[in-house]
């Protein structure tokens, strides 16, 4: 039995039963229920969502937390946030720039001599906004549904070996700064730069500079620890063997060093909403650095220094990021005035593309 959003809300602590919305808002929340249910019916095992606005906090979930069970997705549950991690890493780099401990236009060679070809022309700014041209490490790996993908499930990766695999390939474009190409390699390097600048790992710096001050109690960087500490939905990847039909393999537990500084973080919808609101509200960066974070590397992309944005159908611009941790997908965006915050997380089942459905869901949440 597939649990609907309404059913899940009835059984998850802190769900809609705990949210007292004005009468005129109830229909809109019902619309969010329906769209969550539509996503799990078409392309996901489970989904969860949190909306914070002038009317309070609403949480919903749909689908099941684990295939083969009727267990509801925990609306307050943890999940792998994927590339939303990049926004945390970028915030730390910008804080270090504000402290004069590095400059955004420092070259990679000035911090990591010889780490990458043309490191004397690639700057930290290029790494942050994906204009370095460095080949993406992710593209060097077998990916689902290739069964070889599972061979590295428990492998511990170092950033150095990941970068070496990436730069064995030619750059995506030249010269650096002339175009945009998403590259996890740049954030692996930024993690190393943070360590060089502070003497502490990027995970430690995120913990002391962001997680602890904002009291993000459900957020942590797992390093090489394979599990997820708190209540969580299970995540799956499709694997195809011997030409047969792809089947979903539970990939909840894995060695997250695969993602490193580009995407290893685990969090909750509540914490991500709090983080993005604090960032846009100036609690983590001064205005000049927040403005730099909002400045695109190239005019054709809505991506700055680890921060993305989108324009909703009703003309509201929202800032945040989205993440793909293979078995988990997430979106976390907030209005510039921080009055409305929305985070969505899915455990996809790969029957279809979730992007259009989530775009419509975010439009409903921000514009409804």
From TrEMBL:
It comes from the Bacteria. It comes from Streptomyces armeniacus. Residues 1-20 form the signal peptide. GO terms for molecular function: hydrolase activity. This is Class A beta-lactamase-related serine hydrolase. The keyword Secreted does not apply. SUPFAM superfamilies: beta-lactamase/transpeptidase-like. It holds the Pfam family Beta-lactamase.
